[in-house]
């Protein structure tokens, strides 16, 4: 089969157009203000990290305003050096329970102002919260956001209607997707755990990446693939305590590493520091603690062989009250940011 010169030109032109379309669509996809973690369970604590990738038509961002939707309570924003932080409070549409007390009002809008985020730079604006609303699995929670710049502003405040794809909107609000009802899942996991303990008298595994022991539920253990010769790997997961009293992660072991440590990473005087938690990590009653890059995490020290994507790394966690839990860490790609990365615009 032969292709003449004009046909070749048309094919190359078509290929070039398709490639350009992909590049343009990808550029547009990362142009929105988005949430770094786009999925969460209702009834859990949620750290909202808003990613601001650009200014307003080249002008520097000077103010970021984020509206807090109904049902997101206990909001505590993180201050930023060089920015003024203001919180607008208001009354909730209904009363919520927090630590046994009724909560009827709280932050409705957070404003970082007085900064100068160049169009050439990227930054993040962060707050912690609790998802207390009657959110259902699959529901999207929108956080209308406004960037005010030296010249003009950009409003990320369009909210998709039921059944509408938010990606079809020109200026979609950053959106959090609810992936499960925590109370329902927790009760099912507790019932399953009690039944298995009664039958087996041992720790149990529920699903491919959910592990239970007593009142504790550990989900999505993962680690990153390592380059050849590397001797250290991080370990990440989430622990939910469905019991009435606190427990403590006091240690861990793995046949694939010489020893395992529990670490905390934090910012001190502008310097990122890491320290081992010699007293372990407390998981309070009714709370979820996430071990993730940049925060609490596990360190597999002196690993015995290279970790490759698709492999698993077996380990045993030791809790002060619940005891020992055997589980497997899924090995993700080098540079992975999570066990199940959320989709970004």
Q: Ranges with pLDDT <50 over ≥5 residues? A: 1-30, 181-207, 339-345
Using DSSP, what is the number of strands?
Answer: 24
Q: DSSP helix count?
A: 2
- From the N-terminal CA to the C-terminal CA, the straight-line distance is 42 Å
Strand content: over 45%
Which fold name is given in CATH as the topology of the largest domain? Answer: Immunoglobulin-like
Q: What is the radius of gyration? A: 23 Å
The total number of structural domains is 2
Determine the fraction of residues in helical runs and give it as a percent range: 10-25%
Order of helices and strands: HEEEEEEEEEEEEHEEEEEEEEEEEE
Shape: globular
Query: Would you identify the CATH architecture of the largest domain?
Result: Sandwich
Q: Structural class, please?
A: mainly beta
CATH uppermost class of the largest domain: Mainly Beta
Q: Indicate the mean pLDDT.
A: 81
Q: Superfamily at the CATH H level of the largest domain?
A: Uncharacterised protein YcnI-like PF07987, DUF1775
Largest sheet properties: 12 strands, mixed
